[in-house]
Amino acid sequence: MKATVRAVGVVMLALVAIGCSTTRQQSAGVDDREYTPPTSIYNILDSTALVYSDPAAGSPINDHPLRWFAFASHPIGQALDYGINRPIYTLASGFAYLSGYTAEDNMVNAQRR
Q: pTM of the full predicted structure?
């Protein structure tokens, strides 16, 4: 039984090694590919890029519909964070042993703006 398992393992290892050793690409050849220019030439290192290009032109045509919901609900989430979450963290830090408040929680709470 050990010999069979070992033989199957060697065959599987050989198949993986052979599959990873090829350098041939799955796509078409270099000469067959066509050049597709980028949507915009914006580069984050170029300070004048926003002057000479239109970032809105490079954005997707149909924006995701949930993005508008996120824009609308962001102030609600901020209010819940300041009204509920942060006071609970402050209360828990006073009773660290009972609430399970750790040094990591303290570090995360201290890094909030």
A: 0.40
Residue 105 lies in a domain: yes
Q: Which range marks the domain in which residue 97 is found?
A: 64-113
If phi over 0 gives left and psi between -120 and 50 gives alpha, with beta otherwise, what is residue 109?
alpha
In contact, 95 and 101? CB cutoff 8 Å: yes
Whole-angstrom CA distances from 72 to 28, 69, 75 are 46, 5, 7
42 burial level (CB within 10 Å; 0-12, 13-18, 19+): middle
Q: How many residues does the chain have?
A: 113
The pLDDT tens digits for 61-96 are: 556 778 888 889 999 999 999 999 889 888 888 888
Least Cα distance to 91 among 81, 78, 101 occurs for 101
Domain-embedded: residue 52:
no
Domain count, the chain: 1
- Select the highest-mean-pLDDT range: 3-12, 14-23, 45-54: 3-12
Distance of alpha carbon 64 from alpha carbon 78, whole angstroms? 22
